[in-house]
Amino acid sequence: MLFPSDEPLRGPLQEFDFDTDEEEGDSPKAPIGKRKKSKQAERPLKIIPTASDASSDDSDASDDEERVTMANMEARSKALDARAAAEAELDAEELRGAQEDEEEDEDVDMDGEADEEGNMDAEPFHLPTAAEREEEKARGGPDLQVVQRRLRECVRVLEKFSKRAEKGRSRSEYTGQLMADIASYYGYNDFLVEKFFQLFPVAEAIEFFEANEVSRPVTIRTNTLRTRRRDLAQALVNRGVNLEPIGKWTNVGLQVFESSVPIGATPEYLAGHYMLQAASSLLPVIALSPQPNERVLDMASAPGGKTTHIAALLQNTGVVFANDANKARTKSLTANVHRLGCKNVVVCSYDGREFPKVMGGFDRVLLDAPCSGTGVISKDSSVKLNKSDRDFTLLSHLQKQLILCAIDSVSPESKTGGYLVYSTCSVTVDENEAVVDYALRKRPNVKLVDTGLSFGREGFTKYRGKTFNPSLNLTRRFYPHVHNMDGFFVSKFKVEKRTKAQSAPVDAEMKEPADEGVDKEESAGFDSEEDRPYLEGSLSVLLEDGCILTLLFLQRRNEGG
Fold it and tell me: Family per UniProt (predicted)?
């Protein structure tokens, strides 16, 4: 289901105009499946034909018509009213017919299911019992067609449970069977299937799982430090690349449909004219909106797509500190910085939680935090099986630490900035709204502001009995089945000066009763003893953009920094 403000990448393809005088021909219409003939099939395509649309036959007929005068005006008005009433009756009749057809289909579906040729199945749908499921497993699992039909029927029943469910069967039985079939059909573990099911209605959840099986469109970002988008598009078209602008929300993105040459090895790519970059990764930098001559920190920057985008928006003025905790990944970061001609970038490798001590006073900070990668499953299918509740607990703990450090790294006295953008390539609430709500409670001098993104769904303000800060509706969520881009979350903070009233309770933070599921940290540092179980418990998780990285959980206090 698309929202009016959502602007997906999919849709009819339009030819990219490169100042040619050629007129675009009529595109062939897509084939239409079998359907009932509409009662409005004979209506004119245009409600109000213009003079330019009139044919010679129309002109002959119009000559016979009387001119509108005071004498015939009332009669002509009545005729128009009668025509409008007839059309309204036709609409109502068609609506009633559609409702009757739907009721008939429901009755038919309860007795059996029609195949592609319209023949009815001999056996109606039956939800298997626990014993039948055990027998099915003993036989080696269900047939693929059986699973497909069961998925379809369970979704249909859950949409109107009171009318379509078998007598004596509960909703939880249908839901449990549906989740079990999704896990086996799409290859997820049971935990992740249940987690995704809590995010969407039943029918939309199926759309989400299905979208994760399809690759996202190939997109590139124009490097405005070296070229213009129009010039780049023309050069690539001349090399046999079929492309067009992504959308109105970005003036540097191009979507590649097909290419006769490797898109990552063209002379333009090697010369740094563009960066292969997912459309969703453009969103955090657009929300950050860096201004020339500012000091900007990219806290988790490798491989450099967002860093070089920031440098381009700064027009090589100011300075960008590109940090990544994994020193090995800074090699690719440095290579991209050089290739794209970014002269205002400083590459460094620190644990992001050390940045308030290492350096601060930034005008803007971008934290594209380490996450589970549940938004980029189409790129990394290993996420389907290797994620557990423990991973989300560890990640959310790390994200809460990083976001507090990022807030403390922003200068509230900045004349042009004072902003932080927090983003993840995850769709789970644990890593997104819960972390943002935690930051708002722990840092009373920050507030959420509009991201400036013209599309995307609003973040959750209520989720499974939890109530978050009402301002979380300013955050934005992006889904593969809605926007045809990787799952993403974007939020933007404004950091203001601390008042005395806000600063006073800081020393008493550790004395407050702990909130459920929330770790208590001090304003500038963290309790090593409290963090020890987390630091010793895991050495690697999925990080930024779905890549498998190694987290250096270093206890710098014990190791001397």
Answer: Belongs to the class I-like SAM-binding methyltransferase superfamily. RsmB/NOP family.
Helix (H) or strand (E) segment spanning residue 229: helix 229-238
User: Can you say which residues are annotated as belonging to the binding site for S-adenosyl-L-methionine?
Assistant: 300-306, 324, 351, 368
**What pLDDT is attached to residue 512?**
37
> CB-based contacts of 148: which residues, under 8 Å, 6+ apart?
185
Q: Which of 154, 342, 371, 425 is catalytic?
A: 425
**Same-domain check for residues 460 and 379:** yes
- Count of residues in the chain: 561
Tell me, yes or no, if 371 is annotated catalytic.
Answer: no
- State the residue for tokens 């910085």: 337
- Which positions make up the binding site? 300-306, 324, 351, 368
What's the domain range around 267?
A: 218-277
For residue 402, which of 327, 300, 305, 280 has the smallest C-alpha distance?
300
Three-state DSSP state, 379: coil
Q: Max CA-CA distance within the chain?
A: 101
Sign of CA dihedral 527, 389, 173, 135: negative
In this structure, are 359 and 411 located in the same domain?
A: yes
| pLDDT tens for each residue of 180-224 | 999 989 999 999 999 999 999 999 999 999 999 999 999 999 999
